[in-house]
TrEMBL record:
It comes from the Bacteria. This is Putative restriction endonuclease domain-containing protein. CDD domains: DUF820-like (cd06260). Residues 20-186 form the Putative restriction endonuclease domain. It comes from Singulisphaera acidiphila (strain ATCC BAA-1392 / DSM 18658 / VKM B-2454 / MOB10). Signal peptide: none annotated. InterPro entries: Nuclease_put_TT1808, Restrct_endonuc-II-like, Uma2.
Amino acid sequence: MATITRQIGPADHGQRMTLDEYIHADFVDGWLYELARGVIVATEVPGPDHGRVVRRLTRMFIVYEDRHPGVITFGAGGSDCRLRLPGMQSDRHPDQAIYLDPQPPGPNVWTRWTPHIVVEVVSKGGEDRDYVEKREEYLRVGVSEYWIVDPGQRRILVLCRAGDTWVETVVAAGATYRTHLLPGLEVRPDELLGE
């Protein structure tokens, strides 16, 4: 029996869909798509300011990998990884995901391989998505640390797992954050956010 593939575009924003339907859909180019608790989210590609912060994050993690080989097994951006939460009917593409465990063998890797660190850069209009929705989803899927980089507030909110809750640390401009997950890494909001 043939499967009918549905095409999703920006006009589908807010429409309901199952995770299975979403996984098998085709997407209209030029937009970013996620499935948030069974609802299609279509957003415009973030602007250059967002991209500059993501690029600085990427560079920071690559430099760390070069200086500390073997610690990070996979570092990925939004187009290179996904977090699938079948129980929540969600499919997320974080701005950065850092994996410390080896990739599990076999198919369906995105439902079985959880990053230790996930980073989202807040875009105007996406605050609720990053601060509320993804906060709960990333906790539920098993992420150890969730960093919310907020250019508007000039800070990073670091959420560290403590059992089934998050412990919050605000890293303001001028401060430095160090994570036990990546010994030797120093994260400075001023360097990531730029002027």
